[in-house]
## 1
Amino acid sequence: MEIYKWLPKTNCKECGKPTCMAFSLDLLQGKVKVDDCPPILKPKYKKQYEKLKEMLGSEEGQQKELRINVDEDLCDGCGICVTVCPVNARYCPPSLSGKAPEYPPEKHQLFQVIGGKCELLNLEHCRRLDSEGRERECHVCETYCPREAIKIEYV
Amino acid sequence: MKRYPCSGCSLLCDDIIVKSDGLFIDKIIGACLKGKERFDQVSAQNRITSPLIRKNNELINVSWEEALAKTVEIIKNSSAPLLYGFSNVTCEAQRAGMDLAREINGFIDSNASICQGKILNKAKSQGINLTTITEIINKGDLIILWGANPAETIPRLLNKVLFSRGKFRMTGREIKTLVIIDPVKTASFRVMGVRDLALIIEPDKDIELIQMLKEECCSADSIPSGGVAGIDKSDLKRLLLHLTGAENGVIILGQGVLQPHADYDLIEELLDLLQLINDRQVKGRISLLLLGGHFNMAGFDHVALSSYGVSGKLQFENKKLVKSEDTIVSKINKENFDCSIIVGTDPISHLPHSLSSKLARKPLILIDNHSSATSRIADVILPTSITGIESSGLVYRIDQVPVELKKILNPPNNIPSDEELLNQLIKKFNGGAK
Ligand code: SF4
Ligand code: SF4
Ligand code: SF4
Ligand code: SF4
C-alpha cells in the first residue's frame, strides 16, 4: 500500500474513518481527498502531504471503481484464489480443504474454476467493497496467484 | 451434485463436477486446465478410434480381427517380447499386462521404475514415513519443495497442500511454512510469503547440501561461514530449525532430484538425513512425497507386489517368474528384446535418442488412444478408451492412496478399455484357460 505508507498512521479517527488503512483505500477509490485528513495538514507532515498530492495528482477526488481482472490466457485453474479468498472461505466450506465449491455457485462466491479457467463471479462481495467497517486491505488473491493472472485496480 | 475423479495427473483430484448428457461433456467445474485438457482428449484431433497396421511403410485402417491377428503373429515370432508403459492405465490393466507377459514369456516394466520405484522401496525399508495429501491438508505445517515445481506440473497441488486449512484448524496458509530448494526461480516461487524460505542452490550440488546438513545434525556448527552450494549459512540454519521443529513436515521430491541422477547416492544420503532428523525431532516428524506425472505411476508396484510378490519389473520364462537384474533401460540398451508392446505412453519422445532409436528398430505394438511420436513408427496400433472418462478402474494417487476412476461417457466405435484389450490378447495365447 503505497498510499498508506505516507499517511500519519496514528489511527486518530479524525477523518471519520476507523483507521488510516480504511482512509487510504477510500483515497485510492477517490471517495475522499487528502485534505480530509486533518492531521496531515499540520506542518510536521508537510513532506508526506506533498508526496500524497503528487501520487494522486489530478485524479484526486474523482470516484473510481474497483476492478479485478483475471487474465484468461495466464490462468491455469490451479484454484488457489478460490481457496484463499476470505469470502469464498466463509460461504463455501469445501474450499477450505482445497475442494472445488458446489455448482451452481453460492451467491456470495467470488471465484470458481470452470472449464480449466478461473471465473470472477460476484465482485460486489469482495472484501475491498463489502467490509462493514473492517479494514479493507485484502489482496491475497492477487498476491498468491502463481501465474500472476489476477490484477486488482481502480479505474 | 455428483463429483468425479480427474485422471489428468497423479493428484487425481476427486472433486470434479461434470455436466454431461451421456454423449458429450458440456461443462467441467473444478478441474484445472490440465484436467480439462484430459477431458478434451475425448474428441481431440489426434485421437485414434480404429486399429491401424503398417503395410508398405504406411499405416492403414484395418479391422480388429486383422489387427489382432497381426499382433499375435508378431508376438508368436518373438522369443523376448518387451512390455513397457503402464503408468497411464488402471491397476486392472496393469495386472492384465503382467499376465500377458507371463503367457508370452516377456519382460514387463513401467515408466515409474526409471525414477520412482527404487526410491520408494528404499524409503519403505528404512522406515521413512510416506504421508498422504489429506494428512498434509489437515495437519501439515512445513512443506519443502525439492527440485519440484508443482505450479507447472501438478497445478492444484500447491492449492491443496499449502493454501487449504483443512477441517480442524482455523488457519491455513499462515501457519504453513514453505521452503523451496531449486537451482532456478520456478513459477512455484511466486506463492512464497514473508516467512518462507527460498533456497537457490547451485545446479547438481544437492548432494553437498545434504551432506552438510547431515554433518550439522551430528555436530552443531560445522557449516562453513561461506555457506554451501550457493546457500548462506544463516539460511541453512533456518532450514535445519524448520526441519527439526516442524510437527508435520513433508519433503516433496520432484523431477529435479529424481530424474537426472542415475546413481542413487543422492537419494540414499537424503533418506539418511531424514532418518537423522526424525531421530532429533521432538514434536513430530518429517515425511516424504514423490512427485510423478502419470496418473497411475504408483500403481504398478502395488500390483506387481500383490500379484507376483515382487515390486517393479517382472521377467518371465517358461511362464514362470524369474529373477532378473535388467531394467527397461538395460534391456533396450543391450537390445535384449525382439519386439515391444507399448501401453499408454510415448517412449519415442520421452526416452533419450540412443534408446528410442533401438526401440524403433524392432516391431512395435502400440496400445494407446492418441497419436504420438511412437504411433508414427509403430507397426500395429490398437486404440483403447480413455481411462477415467470412457472406462473405469482402480489407480493409485501420488501418495499411494487408491482411487476408483469412473466411467462417464461411452467410447467411440465401442473400442475396448486397456484392460479388456489385454485380456483379449491373453486369451489368444492361452486359449481361454486361466
Ligand atoms: S484523520 Fe488522518 S491520521 Fe487520523 S485516522 Fe484518518 S487518515 Fe489516519
Ligand atoms: S481482494 Fe480479497 S476478498 Fe477480494 S477477491 Fe481478492 S481475495 Fe477475495
Ligand atoms: S490463482 Fe491465478 S492461476 Fe490459479 S486459478 Fe486463480 S487466477 Fe487462475
Ligand atoms: S491437478 Fe491433476 S488431477 Fe487435479 S484437476 Fe488438475 S490435472 Fe486433474
## 2
Amino acid sequence: MAKEEVKAPQELEKDWVLMQGNEAVAKAAIDVGVKFFAGYPITPSTEIAEILAEELPLNDGVYIQMEDEISSMCAVIGASLAGAKSLTATSGPGFSLMQEAIGFAKISETPCVIVNVQRTGPSTGLPTKPGQGDIMQARWGSHGDGPAIVLYPDSVKEAYELTIRAFNLSEKYRTCVILLMDEVLGHMREAVLLPDISKFRVINRLKPTVPPEWYKHYEEDQKYLSPLASYGEGYRFHVTGLAHDAHGFPTNKPAEVKTMVTRLKKKITHNIRDIVQIESFMMEDAKVAIFAVGIVSRAAKSAILKARNEGLKVGLLRPLTIWPFPDEAVQKMLRNVETVIVPELNQGQLIHEIERLTKDKTDSDIVKIQKANGELITPNEIYKSIKEVI
Amino acid sequence: MASIPQKVVHQYLRHNKKFPHVWCAGCSNGIVLGAVIRAIHELQIPKDDVMMVSGIGCTSRMPVYVDFNSLHTLHGRAIAFATGIKMVKPNMKVIVITGDGDATAIGGNHFIHAARRNIDLTVLVLNNHIYGMTGGQYSPTTPEGDFASTTPYGNIDEPFNICQLAMGAGATFVARGTAFHALETQTLIKEAILHKGCSVLEIVSSCPVIYGRLNKKGSPSRMLENMRDNSINIKAAEKLPPEQTEGKIIRGILKKDDKAVEYYDKYTQLVNRIKSKNK
Ligand SMILES: Cc1ncc(C[n+]2csc(CCOP(=O)(O)OP(=O)(O)O)c2C)c(N)n1
Ligand code: SF4
C-alpha cells in the first residue's frame, strides 16, 4: 500500500482540503452514521467533541457533554444498546477513567468506538505533546482479560479511513474498538483528498429476524457473531456485566462461563484475517526492518528513502491494527530480515511483541529507539540507527 | 410444569428464567419490586416501552427479574447508561433502580448531574443505609453513630439526605416513600414515572440481615413497623409544629415543578432552532 504524495498547494484541486486528524475523525463519524457522542473535554482530543457538538444536532444525532469520562463511556454504551452508532473521544487521563466501562462494552458485546489521542507520560504528563504510552493499556487496560481491537492511523487521511473501519469492526464483531492516535496527528493539518463515503463499505450490526421469544443475543453462528436487537423494539432482552448465558442472564456455572469467555476470544481469533491490517513498505529485499506505528512510521519512511538512495536494503512494517497483534504477518515478514529496529515514543512497549515473535534473533538483532520526553523521533535518528546496523 | 400464578406481578416476572432470586428472606427489596410492577401495570405502559436500568448492589439486581428491557450496569453508573438510552429512545420510560451507595457514593456525580439537566429519568433510590451486597459497610446515608462492618466503633460521617441532595441539584420531582407504605409508594412511583423531567424517589428500605443485626433493629417485620412508627406523611406534617416532626421520615411529594423544560425536549428545541436558521 503505497502512500500518496501530497501535492504542492498550487496544484490542489478543488476537492482537496486542509484538515486536522481530529477533524478527519469527526468527519468520518458523521459520514459513517454516528448518532451519539458523549464526552468530556481533554487535550489533545477536544476538537473531535467540538466539531461533533456542531454537526450532530444537524445530522439527527445527539451530542452530550457528560460530567466525566466514566459517564461518557457509560452513556455511549447505553446509546448503542438503544440502537445508535456511538462514539467517545478522549486522551490518557480520560482513557484511564473509561477502563471499567470499556470492560462492560467487551463483556456485554456492545458496539462502540473510543478514540484516544495519546499524550506524553503517566498522569497529566505533557498534555500537548505526543507519546505512544497507551499501546499496552489499549490492550490490557480494563481488568479481567477481555478481547481488544485497536487501530492506529499514520496520517490524516488514514484517520478518516480507520474511523470508518473502527465502526465497521465494532458493528460486525459487537465490541468496542479503540482508535489510538498520536497527538501530532490529532493536531496536524494535511492536505487530503477524501474519497466519498459511498466508496466505502459501511457495515451495520445484524438485527435479529427471529420472533422475540426465540431471540438469544449471545448465541453465535460459526463465525462467533450474533445479531443485536435495540432496546425498545420488542425484544426486551437483558444485558449485564456479570458473566452470562446465551440469554444474557447471569450465570456462575463453569460450563456456561467458559462458553462466554471462549466466545469473546474466538470472535477475534477466528476472524483475525478480517481484522488485521499491516502495511509493508520496501520490505521485498530488506535486510533491516523498521517496525513502527503512527507518526513514528512516517519518520521511518523518510529515513528509509534516504537509506535506499544509498543502496541500503531497509524497509518498514507498520500495523494499522495493533491489537490483535498481527503475529502471523509479522513473523513471516521478519523471517528474512537480519535486524529489526523498533522506534517508539515510550520506554518500550511494541518491542516486547517483536521480541516475542523473533525468538530466532539475538538481542543485538533487535534495536530499540525509545523517547518519552515529548519530542518526536526524527528521520535522522532512525537513519543513523540504520547506518549503525548495516 | 407448575401453572403460573395469576397475580399482576406474575405477568411481569421472568418467572421461569431467573428464580429463585438473590435476596435474603426478610429483605424489603421484593416489596418495592411489587410496588414498581403494580405502578407500571396501573399506568398501562406496554412492557416494550419500559427500560429498567440499575447499578451494582442487592437492590440493583432487580431488573433481571422483570420482563422489561433491562440493563444491569456498573457500580454507580446506572444513571449515565440511562442517559445514553433516553437520548436515543426518548419515548421509552427509563426507570433507574439504585441503592444508597450506588446513587450517592460512587454514583453521586451522575446523580446530581442528571438532576441538574432535568433529564426524564425515574430514579428510584432504595435507601437501606448500608452496603448490603458487599456485606454491610457504611454508606453515605448510614446515620451517625450506627454500626457497619467498617464502622466497628460507630459511624462519624454525617449522612446525606437524598431528597435534599436531589432538590438542591435541580431534580424537578422529588419524593420519599418507605417499603412499609407499599401502596403509598406505588402511587409515588406512578407520579414519578408520569412526571416529565428528572424524578427522584427515595424509598426507605430495610436490610434486616446485615444493617438490622449490626444495629439491633429487630426482626424484618419490626424494621418495617419502625418505618410506620418513625415516619409521617408530608400533608400531616405540615399541620404539626416542627418539634413534633423532628427526626421523622417525611413521606410524600416534596417537590414537583412541572414548568421546567425537560432535557431531551430542550435538545429538540435547539435542533429545531438551528435547523430553521440553516434553511
Ligand atoms: C467500582 C466498584 N467498586 C466497588 C464495588 C463493590 N460493591 C458492590 S455493591 C457495593 C455497595 C452496594 O451498596 P448499595 O448501593 O447501597 O446497594 P445495596 O447492596 O445495599 O442494595 C459495592 C461497594 C463494585 N462492584 N464496583
Ligand atoms: S444483604 Fe440486606 S439488602 Fe442485601 S438482600 Fe440481604 S437483606 Fe437485602
